[in-house]
Structure formats: C-alpha cells, structure tokens
Amino acid sequence: MSDNSEYVIVPGTPSSEWYHDLRKLAGLTPPPPDAMSESVPRSLANSWHMLVAYERKHMVDGQPAPGQNPAGMGRLVGDGAMFLIMCDIAVHPDHQRKGIGKRISQMLVDYVDAHAPHAYVSLVADPMGQALYPKFGFEDVKPAVGMFRCVYSQKDKEGRKAILERQLAAARGEI
After folding, report:
1. What is the mean predicted confidence (pLDDT) over 65-75?
2. CA–CA separation, 156 and 133 (whole Å)
3. CATH superfamily label, 7-171
4. CA 104 vs CA 8, 38, 49: distances in Å
5. Best-predicted range by mean pLDDT among 59-63, 111-115, 127-131?
6. CB contact at 8 A, 75 and 37
7. Domain extents in the chain
8. Separation of alpha carbons 57 and 71, rounded Å
9. What digits encode the pLDDT tens for the residues 84-107?
10. 51-65 per-residue burial string, b: 16 or more CB within 10 A, e: under 16
11. DSSP for 89-155?
C-alpha cells in the first residue's frame, strides 16, 4: 500500500531544541532550561521507540533534508516488555488537524503490539488529547487516580494552571 500523505513518519529523534519547541508549541509543558544540556538528550536517547513526522515535500531520498524541522513526534519509554509510557505526542500548530497525532499514536500502539504485546501502556492525556486516546484502546483509570511528580512544574503552579486553561479552551474550540 502506498502512502501519499503529505507527511512521513519515521523512527528517529529530534534535536533537544526541537523536542523542547514542539512540546511548548503544542501546549505541553516544555523541559526547563537547565535540563536542556544533559537531561533532555539522555531522556531522548533512552526512549524505547520514538517517531518523528516530517513534511514529505522537503524529504531528500526518503530522509529528512539537512535542517528540516519536525512537524510532530511521539515516543514510548519504559522497560520494553511489561511497562511502557506513551508520551510526547506533540504536533507543531502549523501542522495540526492533519492526522499526524492520530498516525503517530496508531504507529506507537502497533509497535507495542508487535514488540511488547503483554505491556501495560499508560499515558497522561492533556485536555486536547483526551478524546483521541480511547480510539487506540486506552481507558480511563477510574476509580484509580492518575498522579504525577514534577518538581519544576509544581514550583510553577500558576504557570501550569495557565497552560491547562489554554488547553481546555483550545479543546472547546474557543481559541
């Protein structure tokens, strides 16, 4: 089957800068500045599987052109067998609403099914993604409660609250 989509999604890793920028532009909490030199590169290198989306028109011989910026990304982290986290599903605003997030999510789920079929895959869905993930078999954890610990995010509760409010407004189509 031929894929004539305007986007190509391939295994790979964006630069630390683009990882930061895609998270920020997509409305996700970006990593703090002091994490950019060591923590972010180490985190990306330790991904179990990562996908990056590029515009097809800029590809050269099936590869991203030098300096070509990603349109989207998503990754799986974990032990590769029993416990995985699907995270960093982020699409640049200029490329949203074109099916990139859905394609990345499906490809990640397909990868898990092929390589870790017994895995418990979890994720935290921000408001904009909460309608997307049930399409791929994800269920609400109720009556359990999802929790997180992120020191730099918890120090900036007002900033995190503003991000979540923007995400809710976008999910409702208000912005």
Report:
1. 94
2. 27
3. Gcn5-related N-acetyltransferase (GNAT) (3.40.630.30)
4. 10, 26, 11
5. 111-115
6. no
7. 7-171
8. 12
9. 999 999 999 999 999 999 999 999
10. bbbbbeeeeeeeebe
11. EEE-GGGTTSSHHHHHHHHHHHHHHHH-TT-EEE----GGGTTTGGGGT----TTS------HHHHH
What percentage of the chain exceeds 70 in pLDDT? 87
Q: How confident is the model at residue 5 (pLDDT cuts 50, 70, 90)?
A: confident
DSSP-derived 3-state class of residue 83: strand
Q: How far is Cα of residue 51 from the mean position of the Cα atoms in its chain?
A: 9
92 and 7 Cβ atoms separated by less than 8 Å: no
Beta bridge partners of 16: none
